């Protein structure tokens, strides 16, 4: 009673938030695009470059050379600077302290000043502590006004894959002990100010009313209910095209009777990356999942999000196994107790290490090497192992 909740959202999202959340005691306040100073943009660059967890891995620097095309001399300079500023604990702590000191002293944007003056919040909760385009400026404005700030994280790899925290909230809520360790070790958050709360996303997986009858669900794909379904969750990215080649490898293995022929692979491609999908046409043991977010209402549309989530949930629920190259869907699969096979080879073609899927499972990418170490997935490095 007497509590007022105000959701600060960007202008373009206001109507979607109204559809989902407008009710008594809840207001939706839209914020026009926030203008940033050159100093803030520079500090964001520092937070991304001088950060230990991802950018100082050798595999990433090879990727910059072979994939992005940066000159080798420039990569060497970047690496030396990033290693010095982000890896040596004493220097890294000093760099982060200086950046955070400056962030809250950058002049406030008019857009944020106005909305804080209108609503005068007593408490601010930021849903994504690493989101530099929106949440960080909001947290910074709150800090200047002496308002308590609590923040969450958008994803399980947000603290190891992006940039260091530009601002320490008064309290940080994280998904797991692994993420808490990241916050303390690499972002120097005081441990007592970090609390493990679990994955809110996984609450949905306990809602059995979302489960569609199996025969009805498999009918969407034209799959005989007597068959077993394997879900291929494609990650897209620079390897979107070769993921289709990996599905071809699967089909060949079944044709050669190296895999039982009572299984069907459902290929769920990345919604924004569709390279190579024409290769899957006419295959006996691979079916393309055509229910994709891009076919639904616009991003952020509540009904479209629900339709896609329920479809993805049932795809996982009825799969006997999840196959992937890499992606957060590994955690979704494990949450539903599904075995995961991670493909760490490139189909029928050999690629240089920096362009190869192999590098994602051999320490070049911190999170995935950790998942592999703890037994969260089985890795395969050849069609024979597959």
Instruction: Please give the share of residues in helix.
Output: 25-40%
The H-and-E topology, N to C, reads as EHEHHHHHEHEHEHEHEHEEHEHEHE
User: Largest sheet at a glance?
Assistant: 6 strands, parallel
β content, as a range? 5-15%
**Mean pLDDT score, rounded?**
84
Head-to-tail CA distance between termini: 58 Å
Query: How do the strands of the widest beta sheet line up side by side?
Result: 9-8-7-10-11-12
> Which structural category fits the helices and strands?
alpha/beta
The total of helices stands at 14
Instruction: Tell me the Rg in angstroms.
Output: 23 Å
Explain this structure to me?
It is a single chain. This protein has 386 residues and is of the alpha/beta class. It has 14 helices and twelve strands. The strands form three sheets. A six-stranded parallel β-sheet has the order 9-8-7-10-11-12, with helices on both faces. Helix 11 links the parallel strand 7 and strand 8.
Task: Note the main attributes of this structure.
single chain; about 375 residues; alpha/beta; 6-stranded parallel sheet; 4-stranded parallel sheet; 14 helices; 12 strands; globular
Give a quick summary of the entry.
This protein has 386 residues and is of the alpha/beta class. It has 14 helices and twelve strands.
List the helices and strands and how they pair.
Layout (H helix, E strand, L loop, with lengths): L4 E6 L3 H8 L4 E6 L6 H12 L8 H11 L3 H15 L2 H15 L6 H10 L3 E4 L8 H10 L3 E4 L6 H4 L9 E4 L2 H11 L6 E3 L17 H6 L8 E6 L6 H16 L7 E6 L17 E3 L13 H16 L1 E6 L4 H7 L4 E4 L22 H8 L4 E3 L6
Parallel strand pairs: 1-2, 3-4, 4-5, 5-6, 7-8, 7-10, 8-9, 10-11, 11-12
Helix pairs in contact: 2-5
